Predict the structure.
Amino acid sequence: MNRNELFPDGSKIDNWFYEEKKPALSDFENRYIITDFGVKDDGNVYTEVFQSVIDKAALSGGVVIVPKGEYITGALFFKDGVSLYIEEGATLKGSDDISDYPVMDTRIEGESCVYYPALINADNTSGFRIFGKGTIDGNGLRSWKAFWQRRLWNPDCTNKDEQRPRLVYVSNSSDVIISGVNLKNSHFWTTHIYKCNHVLICDCTIISPRNPVKAPSTDAIDVDVCTDVLIKGCYFDVNDDGVALKGGKGPWADTLEENGMNERIIIEDCTFKFCHGCLTCGSEAIHNKNIIVRNSVLDGPATLLWLKMRMDTPQHYEYIRIENVSGFSDRMLSLYNWNQFFDLKGREDIPMSYADHIEFADCNLKCKNYFDMTKNDECYKVSDVTFINLNIETAKDNYEDGIIDNLYVVNSNISKQEE
């Protein structure tokens, strides 16, 4: 069997990953155009009216259509059997008033807690779709400015202290597709999927600025306790991680039912402009397995693969393969202690973490520093890393013997260039 048909642990990639089916408006017999029910593109906030359209559509199923124009709303809650179509030239814009997002039970930053929902929410659904060539605009500038003002006043404030919504949050759902849409300017994380399976995110453009005002914590896609996820043909340019794998945090995170592993995730045919990490494990993760990034292009991200080893959380990152990736990034591989908001919650020992069976294959990269790792045997162990068929030009070569147990370098050229 061709290795391209296998996950890194040798198990077969399921046929689902090759059966890409993009949604079309013709798939839906029942269509509900929001302007037919009183939603207007006049600059006012239409949360209640918009939600009433969703509730009406839920009675018989169908798709809610956002036509050309710009429509403002607060948090919306989609129900099973209802999807969302954003027409080309249409913008669904989030309110920048946090009171338009009700405080409720949700999931954020590796914790199930009371916080704010996203602009678009769907829970316990099967077959939920967001599609079209239009735009979902979080309108996050106001909260970005407020966040940095708060940090000036209190440098230790957390990401949640500046109350702000995400853009899209889908939870406890299966057969989810987000296709073709432009997602931008989220207040917080852009796309968050939690406890979902068989999720396709394809052909999406996901952006948030890093200047003149940085958009803090605006990860493009956060995968949180999910299985069988395909992220394909997307364009990322965000002021945080491109794809971040979450799953829980804290000294006993691996014992809590609300937390769990991410397994069988494929990221392919994507373009990564600026982001902190193209693929980041953590900082709120406990177990990631069978992860592939392939056939993608880098154009200025900080790190290709970033393994955040959180000292107050037991973690295991295993069977990760990066293949056929080309372009420029500051670093190819980063791994070191992650101490932000460190809290052992009374636990006396540091939980041990592991990273193993990591492979880079058939990559052609230019880096400032391709190898950015520190050794800490009291906190984590790194083993069984393979470099095969690599061509790396790097300004710095900081590799040190002994950091990795069982490093295999096969047919690879790592050359030092002027910075």
The radius of gyration is 21 Å. The mean pLDDT is 95.
